[in-house]
């Protein structure tokens, strides 16, 4: 099995190093042979080659069995909306080129972190949500541009039946292995893409009679996620809504620093923290590496089918937390100073 | 001054009755002469005339000085994405026809309701956010439709410089009268409309040197609203992002049942609760009328410049809460049964 490591920008570098170290350790412990390679992407790739996703990187990605990914982005582009070459273009191109249409984001709170969230513990306790965010369509990939002498901007959102069906099927199937409830989130009272989305999900439902299907408008869902997160089991939604809702839902897990995601499609899979490049803390050694470590666990489970190995990682994280160790983002006033870890130690 | 009452659908009827009663009372107490008329909109208008916003209603709206609005919507359309005539069309048409481009949503927690939110009191305490949601542009009003034999759906998001500038100015000016901080929310790392949005806000900033301007991506903002709501003062954002974020932010105020909004532009203003028609509780007499009451307060303040009258209403709501009275949505286990009010009583 061949794993490509793509640390990307900012804290992506620091945390992916730890994620990789865990893969090396697991391979050793369980007697697997993984080979590794590394490639550039994002701002670091622009600096080196002028291209946020160099052909060489894309080629290496296609030849991998799975990719452990960090983050891309740099504040310098955020404040320059007119920049023509941007780190995120690499990310979007990777998703499209590799056909990574399904982004899975499990949101589960480790019991030890009940205190780290801004939401009340009694509301949180027992929350366990699996998001399926569509990742290669919607307003992210439609035509966009300017007109009227640069005075009007537009973005086209688009979905085909086929695109909705394949992500919805993945979500229905996942619901079967879990709480058997599927919530499809859209804005069908306003958007035509959402009306198509809802039609397709409704048409599939009879094939999954064991699954209870609910449809929610995105505004109501954004509210309900905070008011009553236990109400959700599997959630399926479009690219843009998924982007917003999963970041919001990270608060259910106490910190973005704890959340891993898997982007899969027809071939290789990309495993990455949902946090970004976080340049404000880059290089300080305080980044929480657990999202990358948990991304490694997802990689073993989903791309390699190595359930036991994956669970060994999750248990180790659980034990670390039970023993009271914390990185700064999940520490609180009661955490003793000698239990506050830096990035390497947490790994 | 002429006020048009448009109760609309579901609990819109019940709560708007209470909102109007408060206006009548205030006029009496402060010696004002308000005249009233009533008109149909939404599902009730479809049933009566086939049109969610009959011409007669629109005409009455144009001739009003302000409109006290309830809610529109009906579950029957939600489960039928192919319905050609929908209550929401009336709402969107009203916004467009009356030029209501600025939707103001103040999110402020009454101290007595600290316990009603799913967010921890220490995170919430002191939160006070004023949202400016753009209301007549974006993906709500662009061309939308189907192609490829009905197998592909599309929606076009569009913004012109002028549209962004006028809402941004309103937000900058409001920030001047408050905490002097403005957060503009967009998705400029992906959307061209957002890049235009950011350009315009950046270009205006030098005209308001006393205001500290920050730009956030919508995903980060959705997270930060829950993690640290006190970080926000005035927030300005596009139509779709505003829809999602303000519903989410309602949790900061404990309940949607407490939140009023004002939609203003060049002529008359529309004042309405941010909650919807809530058919699940319609007719049970349990709906919280305070959002409609607070909408009446906003109406007096913004459309009529009657600050004292507006504050009298807010104080009365505050006193009601301080005296321990609650409708069901904001009651908790400690609320004694004799302090639980129905809709009329709360009015
Ligand atoms: C960086 C950005 C383009 C990206 C997205 O919006 O998809 C990120 O927010 C994510 O969720 O992976
Ligand atoms: C009913 C719907 C069309 C509307 C919107 O999305 O604008 C509502 O959610 C609102 O916020 O007023």
From TrEMBL, chains A, B:
<feature type="site" description="Important for catalysis">
    <location>
        <position position="187"/>
    </location>
</feature>
<feature type="binding site">
    <location>
        <position position="105"/>
    </location>
    <ligand>
        <name>substrate</name>
    </ligand>
</feature>
<protein>
    <recommendedName>
        <fullName>3-isopropylmalate dehydrogenase</fullName>
        <ecNumber>1.1.1.85</ecNumber>
    </recommendedName>
</protein>
<dbReference type="GO" id="GO:0005829">
    <property type="term" value="C:cytosol"/>
</dbReference>
<dbReference type="InterPro" id="IPR024084">
    <property type="entry name" value="IsoPropMal-DH-like_dom"/>
</dbReference>
<dbReference type="Pfam" id="PF00180">
    <property type="entry name" value="Iso_dh"/>
</dbReference>
<comment type="similarity">
    <text>Belongs to the isocitrate and isopropylmalate dehydrogenases family. LeuB type 1 subfamily.</text>
</comment>
<keyword id="KW-0100">Branched-chain amino acid biosynthesis</keyword>
<feature type="binding site">
    <location>
        <position position="247"/>
    </location>
    <ligand>
        <name>Mg(2+)</name>
    </ligand>
</feature>
<dbReference type="GO" id="GO:0009098">
    <property type="term" value="P:L-leucine biosynthetic process"/>
</dbReference>
<keyword id="KW-0028">Amino-acid biosynthesis</keyword>
<keyword id="KW-0432">Leucine biosynthesis</keyword>
<keyword id="KW-0479">Metal-binding</keyword>
<dbReference type="GO" id="GO:0000287">
    <property type="term" value="F:magnesium ion binding"/>
</dbReference>
<dbReference type="GO" id="GO:0051287">
    <property type="term" value="F:NAD binding"/>
</dbReference>
<feature type="binding site">
    <location>
        <position position="95"/>
    </location>
    <ligand>
        <name>substrate</name>
    </ligand>
</feature>
<keyword id="KW-0560">Oxidoreductase</keyword>
<feature type="site" description="Important for catalysis">
    <location>
        <position position="140"/>
    </location>
</feature>
<feature type="domain" description="Isopropylmalate dehydrogenase-like">
    <location>
        <begin position="2"/>
        <end position="347"/>
    </location>
</feature>
<comment type="subunit">
    <text>Homodimer.</text>
</comment>
<keyword id="KW-0464">Manganese</keyword>
<feature type="binding site">
    <location>
        <position position="133"/>
    </location>
    <ligand>
        <name>substrate</name>
    </ligand>
</feature>
<feature type="binding site">
    <location>
        <position position="219"/>
    </location>
    <ligand>
        <name>Mg(2+)</name>
    </ligand>
</feature>
<dbReference type="GO" id="GO:0003862">
    <property type="term" value="F:3-isopropylmalate dehydrogenase activity"/>
</dbReference>
<feature type="binding site">
    <location>
        <position position="219"/>
    </location>
    <ligand>
        <name>substrate</name>
    </ligand>
</feature>
<dbReference type="InterPro" id="IPR004429">
    <property type="entry name" value="Isopropylmalate_DH"/>
</dbReference>
<dbReference type="InterPro" id="IPR019818">
    <property type="entry name" value="IsoCit/isopropylmalate_DH_CS"/>
</dbReference>
<keyword id="KW-0963">Cytoplasm</keyword>
<keyword id="KW-0460">Magnesium</keyword>
<keyword id="KW-0520">NAD</keyword>
<comment type="function">
    <text>Catalyzes the oxidation of 3-carboxy-2-hydroxy-4-methylpentanoate (3-isopropylmalate) to 3-carboxy-4-methyl-2-oxopentanoate. The product decarboxylates to 4-methyl-2 oxopentanoate.</text>
</comment>
<feature type="binding site">
    <location>
        <position position="243"/>
    </location>
    <ligand>
        <name>Mg(2+)</name>
    </ligand>
</feature>
<comment type="pathway">
    <text>Amino-acid biosynthesis; L-leucine biosynthesis; L-leucine from 3-methyl-2-oxobutanoate: step 3/4.</text>
</comment>
């Amino acid at each position: 099995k061949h794993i490509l490591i793509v640390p990307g920008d900012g804290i992506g570098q620091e945390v992916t190093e730890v994620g990789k170290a865990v893969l090396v350790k697991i391979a050793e412990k369980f007697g697997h042979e993984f080979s590794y390679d590394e490639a550039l992407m994002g701002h670091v790739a622009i600096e080196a080659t002028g291209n946020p996703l160099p052909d060489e990187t894309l080629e290496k990605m296609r030849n991998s069995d799975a990719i452990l990914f960090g983050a891309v982005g740099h504040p310098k582009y955020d404040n320059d909306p007119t920049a023509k070459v941007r780190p995120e273009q690499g990310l979007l191109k990777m998703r499209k080129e590799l056909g990574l249409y399904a982004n899975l984001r499990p949101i589960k709170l480790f019991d030890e972190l009940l205190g780290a969230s801004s939401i009340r513990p009694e509301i949180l306790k027992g929350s366990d949500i699996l998001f399926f965010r569509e990742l290669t369509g919607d307003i992210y990939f439609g035509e966009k541009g300017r007109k009227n002498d640069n005075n009007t901007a537009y973005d086209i959102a688009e979905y085909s039946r086929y695109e909705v069906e394949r992500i919805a099927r993945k979500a229905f199937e996942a619901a079967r292995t879990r709480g058997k409830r599927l919530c499809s989130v859209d804005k069908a009272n306003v958007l035509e893409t959402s009306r198509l989305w809802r039609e397709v999900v409704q048409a599939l439902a009879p094939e999954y009679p064991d699954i209870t299907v609910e449809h929610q408008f995105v505004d109501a869902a954004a509210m309900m996620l905070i008011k009553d997160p236990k109400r959700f089991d599997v959630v399926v939604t479009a690219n843009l809504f998924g982007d917003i809702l999963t970041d919001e839902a990270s608060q259910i897990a106490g910190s973005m620093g704890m959340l891993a995601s898997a982007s899969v499609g027809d071939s290789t899979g990309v495993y990455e923290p949902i946090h970004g490049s976080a340049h404000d803390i880059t290089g300080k050694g305080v980044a929480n590496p657990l999202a990358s470590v948990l991304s490694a666990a997802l990689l073993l489970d989903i791309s390699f089918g190595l359930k036991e190995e994956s669970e060994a990682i999750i248990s180790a994280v659980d034990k670390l937390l039970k023993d009271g160790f914390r990185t700064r983002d999940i520490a609180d006033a009661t955490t003793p100073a000698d239990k506050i870890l830096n990035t390497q130690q947490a790994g």
